[in-house]
Specification:
The protein is mainly beta. It is built from no helices and six strands. The protein has a six-stranded antiparallel β-sheet, with no helix packed on it. Strand 2 and strand 3 form a beta hairpin. It is elongated. It starts with 22 loop residues before the first strand and ends in a 6-residue tail after the last strand.
């Protein structure tokens, strides 16, 4: 009953094969979303005989808003106090990523790979806070505003060297 349609179990054997297309191929992708969130990718590949060259570039932009409110109330025998904090933020980020690499098929079962990548990210975050203190009569006793601007600059380099060994499939 192992292979019958009536059996309660089955066997699935999925063999994935590496794309062996030769020549030039590539892809372009565009994305968009809410807040806004936008970007694009470009990928190119060139394969001839045992050598495969590839490169990719992508960029993205995002703008994310945020809001929060905090309320604290303290009431003792001799003190009544309320504290409110209103918080608005807008985070913006622009990033770029590029990579290039090469695969060399030594033979049917062995391959070497090398790639190099660079990423740059430029973020700017604006935070606006209002602090409010209230007395026992619920009147504002002090009010202050605070504006913060924060920049996030991140650059990254990466390199990868890999070796792949495939084994003969005896199935």
């Amino acid at each position: 009953a192992r292979y019958d349609a009536e059996g309660g179990s089955g066997l699935i054997n999925i063999v994935l094969k590496k794309n062996k297309s030769k020549g030039i191929n590539g892809s372009v992708a565009v994305k968009g979303g809410y807040f806004p969130n936008a970007g694009a990718d470009l990928r190119l590949n060139y394969k001839k005989n045992k050598i495969n060259f590839y490169t990719a570039y992508s960029f993205g932009f995002s703008k994310t808003p945020g809001y929060s409110f905090t309320n604290q109330h303290l009431s003792n025998q001799d003190t009544t106090f309320t504290y409110n904090q209103f918080y608005n933020e807008v985070e913006k980020n622009l990033n770029h990523y590029a990579t290039a690499g090469m695969d060399y098929d030594i033979n049917e079962y062995n391959a070497l790979s090398f790639s190099f990548g660079i990423q740059s990210s430029n973020g700017k975050n604006n935070y606006f806070r209002t602090y409010e203190n209230r007395d026992s009569l619920d009147q504002t006793s002090s009010l202050s505003n605070r504006l913060e601007t924060q920049k996030e600059l991140e650059d990254m380099l990466e390199a990868s060297l890999g070796y792949r060994k495939s084994f003969k499939n005896k199935a």
